[in-house]
Design a protein that fits this description.
Layout lengths: L3 E7 L3 H12 L6 E8 L5 H11 L3 E6 L4 H11 L4 E4 L5 E2 L3 H12 L3 E10 L4 E3 L2 H4 L1 H7 L23 E4 H7 L11 H11 L3 E13 L4 H4 L7 H14 L3 H22 L5 H19 L1 H7 L2 H12 L3 H56 L2 H5 L1 H9 L1
Parallel strand pairs: 1-2, 1-4, 2-3, 6-9
Antiparallel strand pairs: 4-8, 5-9, 6-7, 6-8
């Protein structure tokens, strides 16, 4: 048995695959197995994996017909033999000391899993940048270096990155809680994450960046194609986990608003060719949510903006109509804001006008007093003495 199982699902990633594999093989910690599942790649990814497998006994390569990353990860989970488990995507990079550092901490803290930070790298622009979702600063500020569970976080649970990577897991814990990835959809990690999070009693945060998330134009997240419709079954899966643990009522305010907001985010991302289909699914999903929560209850929970999104989704017949309704909403709000600013400026202008009049009055009073002084008898009588003093 090895100490750590590293799992990498692979699909059409020949351009970045070697660098990603090397980042695992060159770890300062070497007691691990490396399980790579090729998900029916059509490029040279499988050949690259086979070449590495011949050179390094730690690599075990598996191949399946294209079934998606969720299925690939589930396959590898069943084959993993390590005490601990780490995921990496086939276009990402693991810091060379990531396994060593997280291994030491998870043993020291004796937790079900630990979180660590990631940084984004845009390979198209060759720039690194931090994204709050992957640094999870708010979560760390709340828990620090202490062991915690979801019960200690409140709504901050929604600020934990739901990605399978960026974490080191106790494999026995994963197997006992039965967390699995959704299959057949691209947003497959949510089901695994929420099930695992709610089952865990001991979590810790390692406040260090150990993972590079690569962004590139050929990634699934950048494709924005029909697969973005997977957001709807993904949310069904998320809700099923909250129902399973009896937590819907506890988190309903954030949960319902998050659902409306995130589905709108995906609607705005998806290509126009699929927007009408997305709108129909959006309409059905919100209708089901209304039935589940009770319409009046849902309307009392949704924030003002999300309530308007709900109403416009239900009213629109096409995505163009929906876009116009949302545009009208934003323009109306902009006009209201401008009017508020106009009233504020008028009030400020009135105040300044009053101050100006007061200053002018004071100035005129001073001129009047000065004139009276110049014309006074005492001023005239002392005129010769002023001349003598000035002469001296």
């Amino acid at each position: 048995m090895v100490e750590i199982s590293v799992i990498m699902p692979v699909y059409n990633c020949e351009e970045f695959l070697k660098e990603s594999i090397d980042s695992v093989l060159n770890q300062s910690f070497d007691d691990f197995e490396f399980l790579c599942v090729d998900d029916g790649s059509k490029d040279n990814s499988l050949e690259i994996l086979r070449d590495f497998e011949k050179k390094d006994s730690r690599i075990k390569v598996f191949h399946q017909e294209n079934k998606g990353g969720g299925t690939a990860r589930n396959v590898a989970l069943k084959k993993a033999t390590g005490k601990y488990l780490l995921f990496i995507d086939s276009d990402d990079i693991l810091y060379s000391d990531a396994l060593e550092k997280t291994y030491e901490l998870i043993r020291q803290k004796d937790v079900d899993f630990l979180l660590f930070k990631a940084i984004d790298y845009d390979s198209d622009t060759d720039k690194y940048f931090e994204e709050e979702y992957f640094t999870m600063e708010n979560v760390y500020q709340e828990v620090g270096d202490e062991v915690f569970s979801y019960n200690d976080l409140g709504d901050l649970i929604f600020e934990i990155s739901a990605t399978p990577w960026g974490k080191l897991y106790n494999l026995d814990f994963i197997k006992k809680c039965g967390a699995q990835f959704a299959e057949g959809i691209i947003f497959h990690d949510n089901l695994f994450f929420w099930d695992m999070l709610f089952a865990s009693e001991r979590i810790c945060f390692y406040d260090e960046t150990l993972y590079v998330r690569r962004i590139h134009s050929t990634s699934i997240q950048e494709s924005k194609d029909k697969r973005f419709l997977n957001i709807f079954p993904a949310f069904e899966g998320i809700f099923s986990v909250f129902i399973k643990y009896g937590l819907v009522d506890r988190y309903k305010h954030y949960l319902y608003n998050w659902r409306v907001r995130l589905e709108l985010f995906r609607f705005n991302q998806i290509h126009d060719d699929y927007k009408n289909q997305f709108l129909e699914e959006y309409k059905k999903d919100l209708s089901d949510l209304s039935d589940f929560a009770g319409h009046e209850n849902l309307m009392s929970i949704l924030e003002k903006y999300n309530k308007k999104v709900y109403e416009n989704v239900m009213e629109a017949e096409t995505y163009k109509e929906f876009n116009l309704l949302m545009k009208n909403y934003h323009l109306t709000n902009k006009i209201k804001k401008l009017k508020r600013n106009q009233r504020k400026l008028k009030k400020e202008n009135k105040k300044l006008e009053k101050e100006k009049n007061q200053i002018e009055q004071e100035y005129n009073d001073i001129l009047k007093e000065n004139k009276q002084l110049m014309n006074s008898k005492s001023w005239k009588m002392t005129k010769p003495f002023r001349r003598i003093r000035n002469f001296k």
